[in-house]
Amino acid sequence: MHEFRVTVGPASFRLLSQWARPLDQMRALYADYPTPEIVDYTVRLEATSLLRRFIRPSAAINGDYMLPDAAPLPADQGLLGLEMGMNLQMALGWRRQMILHASAVERDGKALIMTGESGSGKSTLSALLGINGWRFMGDEFALIDPASGEAVPYPRLISLKNEAIAAMQESAQEAKFGPLMKGTPKGDIRHMVPPREAIAKMTERAKPVLLLFPRFGHEGAIRDMPPSETFMRLTQASTNYVALGEAGFEAMTKFVQDVPARAVDYRSGEEAMELVEKLWEELS
Amino acid sequence: MPLFRAEAADALITRPLDAMTLIYQRRSGITHMVAEPIPEILSAMGSEAVTAKLLVARLAKNFDLGPQKQAEAIVADRLQELADLGLVEQVGSPDA
Amino acid sequence: MKDGRLLVTALRDPASTAALDADGWIALLTMARAEQLIGTLAFRLEGQPMPDGIAAIFEDARTNADYQRKTALWEADAARRALASYQGKVVQMKGTAYVAEDLQAGIGRSIGDLDIMVEEDDLREVEKLLLAAGWEWVKEDEYDDAYYRDHMHELPPLIHKTRDRMIDVHHTILPKTAKPTPDAKAMLGNGIIGSDGLAVFTPADMVCHSAAHLFADGDLAGGLRNLWDIYCLLMEFSRGSDSFHAELQSRAQHHQLEPAVSRAIRLTGHLYGDSKAPPNITDRFYIRRLTARNGCGQQTRKFTRFAFYVRSHLLRMPPMMLAKHLWTKWRKG
């Protein structure tokens, strides 16, 4: 098996693959990230059968934590498979911080957290802010430290889907992009390497001061969200809230009591960024 | 009328948020989000086994509960729901 | 050591891990996760010197084991409340029983579904009470349902609609089609009722059940964990009573489980204990199967595994019935 190890924020991975190509792609994209000696998780990309290693190769995603019914991917989407495998290890295994399915950016030492269903635009929005004066902290998971309440960066590769791909290539011309993968289960996907600063500062935590629930495709609007609704939504957006027990309850309660939350509707990236800047200014 | 006993007070963490209150149950690790009169019922239960009737008598000192029979029916329903969640337990019925 | 013996050695002799380098630790952790023994290992190695990165992983594993323990006990308690009006005995089985009894086998153990056992004649009543308390059938399928009822040793699994947890209600300990026929009625009848009203098997029956489960009711997948359970039970029970081994022999014979229990005792000695005698040929085959795991987390020795798979199906079902079973499955696609 071919092997590649990488550290993203507080977590380290060992990626194993029967094919060299997906790991070569990973190596190029993660070139600026540290290489760990000890890893938290192993992800394996394996042929579904001996024959399938060569003929219409099909890759099963396995690892320390697996879903019983995870469908295999065509081997030329192996990069996507490895990224999904890494996400799954975090979602099912990580207990050191509370995981929110959210993106995060930082400015002046303070963090803005954005959460919502896929399609809400939280990922693209964090990437946009990350090249417009904010430090990108992560587009998929916001890790909240139960003891301090701080957000811990997890700046993995930014996963761009469909229309967002062209838009980001236009806005971030110096950025490094992965191969364009067409016709994945989620449509077209292309990974973008986070800005250099995001990788260099991936151990620098920040205090969350604003939580947004962005929603793409609706006329620009801002609505206050009461703590109980926020609590409800965040527990549904956390993969390890329940498993953390009392520590999770305390962390989540403190978060919804301390961090103001707003639902934000928007129709374009520019509109979203304007609304974010406006809210940020009001709160500080 | 069935008798119910609440979980010991230190077995629950109660955090009022806004109109809703969070209750974390240490034994199960489950978080409940409840509205009034659930926190009031739990705190009025104390540590001994009580009936809905006794609870209404206690709650009436601090709250306007309306007609007694109606209040008893409401409190009895809430107690049954709390029992289904495992936050209180039915410990017998004196008239059975 | 490139196979599961790395994990076995760490469990048997925690101090031996002092010799591991970074890659050795990673191989150990990966195997332990694949064998569902990471929580057990985390508690077993607590206090041993190890790199910080490894200690953090074990800390996660202990947090997770606490959560699983709490959830298992709460599910058992939910079943107890649901069955409050049921007069018969309700025995908690496997992992839930170990944590309920605070046994060493329960420390750090991963626990999935809740397994309970009740009198066969009372299945309908128990089923009705559970359905009334929020459990529902996992899948509505007449064929599977009839198959379970006719030949297996449990009701089709039920899942709780708000807590999303499964319960398996057994009335015997092996499928009706299996060759040894343990005296389930006696196991249930002798079950010891605890202060909360739920019961567990007697120590000897607990070992018999665990051994039956390991050898007769599966393809030995996850066998290292089951064998660790048995090792812990044997150690703890024989420390607690001089007559335990005699009692175990007699119960094993009564349940037609003498071969399974003897093999389990021998294998725990070879793998986790200090047995110096070389294993016999069949035991060697079992050891090869049990330790068929590499440092990447993959199962190895496919041929041995296949032999055990066929064997395990034959043990559960006479051949004609197996053919019929598979035919129905194939037709349904």
Describe this structure in words.
The complex is a heterotrimer of chains A (about 280), B (about 100) and C (about 325). Chain A contains 8 helices and 16 strands. Chain A has about 280 residues and is of the alpha+beta class. In chain A, strand 6 and strand 7 (about 110-115) form a beta hairpin. The longest helix of chain A has 16 residues, at about 80-95. Chain A is globular and about 60 Å long. The mean pLDDT of chain A is about 95. In chain B, strands 2-3-4 form a 3-stranded antiparallel β-sheet, with no helix packed on it. Chain B has a two-stranded antiparallel sheet with strand order 1-5. Chain B is built from 3 helices and 5 strands. Helix content of chain B is about 35%, strand content about 25%. The model of chain C has no long low-confidence stretch (mean pLDDT about 90). Chain C has a 5-stranded mixed β-sheet with strand order 1-2-5-4-3. Chain C has one domain (about 5-330): Beta Polymerase, domain 2 (2-Layer Sandwich), CATH 3.30.460.40. Chain C has helices at about 5-10, 20-35, 40-45, 50-80, 95-100, 125-130, 140-150, 185-190, 205-215, 225-240, 245-255, 260-270, 280-290, 300-315, 320-330, and strands spanning about 90, 115, 135, 160, 165-170, 190-195, 200. Chains in contact: A-B, A-C, B-C. The interface of A and C includes residues 39, 65, 243 and 245 of A.
Shape of chain B: globular
Structural class of chain C: alpha+beta
User: What is the CATH architecture annotation of chain B?
Assistant: Alpha-Beta Complex
Q: How would the global form of chain C be characterised?
A: globular
| CATH fold topology of chain C | Beta Polymerase, domain 2
Q: How many strands, which pairing sense, and closed or not: the largest β-sheet of chain C?
A: 5 strands, mixed
CATH fold type of chain B: Outer Surface Protein A, domain 3
CATH architecture classification of chain C? 2-Layer Sandwich
Number of domains of chain B: 1
The strands making up the biggest β-sheet of chain C line up spatially as: 1-2-5-4-3
Radius of gyration of chain C: 20 Å
Radius of gyration of chain B: 13 Å
Number of helices of chain C: 15
Strand content of chain C: 5-15%
